[in-house]
Amino acid sequence: MEVVYDSVVNVSVDELKEIVSKLNELVSKAPELQEFIKYVHEAESTKVLDTKTKELMSLAIAIAVRCEPCILWHTDAAVKAGAKLEEILEAIKVAVCMGGGPALMYALKAYNIAKEYLTKK
Fold first, then answer.
1. What are the Cα distances from residue 74, in Å, to 29, 60, 107, 117?
2. Could you report the per-residue pLDDT of 93-117, keeping only the tens digit for each?
3. Which domains occur in the chain, in start order?
4. Confidence tier at 12 by pLDDT (50, 70, 90)
């Protein structure tokens, strides 16, 4: 199963494409990871919570655990799902509450990415 991701913004597109390319290579070399990819797609499906809410949750978690590629991925996905800067800021605040000072530094990155994505939308 190929990881499919198509960014509609111009900021960090190359970084996202490189992440997807490397993930596809990894999954091709370790096909057992396909089960995890299937699980991710299932967890991200919209049964009760909408996509925007799930992406904002994922962004907050990415900030709290300090996963820079995840921050890029989920900021882009949240904007594509219709998140406004105010909503992203709410997610950032929750992330910093949970992750403390280190999360604050990653929150700054998410904030800057979100501003750039939203101005190019």
1. 25, 9, 12, 12
2. 999 999 998 899 989 989 988 998 8
3. 13-120 (1.20.1290.10)
4. low
Residue 58: both structure tokens together? 């994922």
**Tens digits of residue pLDDT in 79-93:** 999 999 999 999 999
C-alpha–C-alpha distance, residues 7 and 16, integer Å: 8
Decide: helix, strand or coil at residue 38. helix
Report yes or no on whether pTM surpasses 0.85: no
- Which among 44, 40, 59 is positioned nearest to 99, based on CA atoms? 59
CB atoms within 10 A of CB 71: 23
Both tokens assigned to 60:
């907050």
Contact 35, 50 (CB under 8 A): no
pLDDT band per the 50, 70, 90 thresholds, residue 2: very low
Task: Look up residue 40 and give its two tokens.
Answer: 């991710």
Long-range contacts of 30-36 (CB under 8 A, 24+ apart): 34/1
| Number of other CB atoms surrounding residue 83 within 10 Å | 24
